[in-house]
Amino acid sequence: MRAALYTQKRDLDTFLYLSKFISELNKRDVHVILHKDTAEGLQFSKVFPTFENKKDLEEQEIDYFFSFGGDGTILNALIYIQDLNIPVIGVNTGRLGFLASFTKEEVFANIDHILRNELEISQRSVIKVNGVDIDFPFAINDVTVSRKETTSMITVHSHIDGEFLNVFWGDGLIVSTPTGSTAYSLSCGGPIITPINDIFAVTPIAPHNLNVRPIIIKDEVKIDLKVESRVPQYSLSLDSRLYHVDTEVEISLEKAPFTLSLVQPREINFFETIRQKLLWGQDKRN
User: Fold this and answer.
1) Range(s) of the domain holding residue 217
2) Which residues contact 26 (CB under 8 A, 6 or more apart)?
3) I need a surface site. Which of 36, 72, 90, 210 has the fewest CB within 10 A?
4) What is the average per-residue pLDDT within 65-79?
5) Is 71 a catalytic residue?
6) Is residue 286 assigned to a domain?
C-alpha cells in the first residue's frame, strides 16, 4: 500500500508532526511518497521518494492522498490527482477546515479505519473551463469572472445550452459546485447546496440590478460566458488560481468527467459541519 503526503507548510511543527505520522504509516507497512516541494522544504528529500505531477502518482500506484493544511491545500491537490480517483484525506492544520474533515489528532485515531476503507467517501463534482488556454482548466469550488484593474462594472452575457440566460451588470459572476456553495458564492448571497446534488449555482457579484438573484441549474448543461469591460481584460479564477483573459475570449463551463473522492468520518455529516463551521442557525446573541 502506498500513500502520498502533501502540505504547503514548511515550519518545524509540521516537520515534527509529519515525522510522527509517517512513523505510524510505516508501522502498518504503508510506503510513503512525498510531494517534492514538501520533501525539500522539510528536508525529507533524501529519505523518501517524491512526486511532482499526476504522472508520478499514477506510476507509483498511490492508494491514498493525505493533505495537511486548510481547504486551499485540498483544492490544490486536485492538480496532482485529477482523474486518478485517489481518495483524499484532508487533515486540518489551518483555521476553518470545511473540506479538511480530520483534526491533527483525529487522523491518528482513524488511520486503521482509513486503510481498511471503513470511512465515508464523498464524491465532489468538478467544473471544467473551455475556450481559454490555461495550464489546468478545472476547479472544485468555483469558477469566477470578475473585473480587472477598473472600478467600472463589467457586463457578463450568459447562455445555457445555447439559450439566453441573462446579462449580469456588476463586479462579476460566480459559477460554483455544491462544494463551492459554502465558499465565495455564499459570501455573495448564494445558496448552501448539499454535496450530493448534481447542480451548479450561478451567483452574481455585487449586481447593479436589484432584481437579479442567484439561480440553480442542472450541472449537465454547458454555460457560455462573454464579458464586456472598459479595459481589455477580465479576471478568471479557478478556485485559488487567477488568470487574466482578453475580453474577446468567450469561455464555456461544464461538469468535468471526473470527481474528487473526499474521505470523511461517518459520524460527521454535511449539516453538522455547516452548523459547527459556519454557525448555521445558531443564536449567538448575548
Assistant:
1) 127-255
2) 32
3) 210
4) 93
5) yes
6) no
Q: Is the pTM of this model over 0.70?
A: yes
Question: 51 and 143: one domain?
Answer: no
**Same domain, yes or no, for 67 and 78?**
yes
Question: Among all chains, which residue has been given the C-alpha cell 432584481?
Answer: 211
Of the listed 29, 56, 71, 219, which one is catalytic? 71
Neighbours of 195 (CB within 10 A): 16
Q: What is the per-residue pLDDT across 176-191, written as a single tens digit (0 to 9) for each?
A: 999 999 999 999 999 9
If we measure between CA atoms, which residue out of 68, 112, 120 comes closest to residue 91?
68
Angle formed at CA 115 by CA 111 and CA 121, multiple of 5 degrees: 95
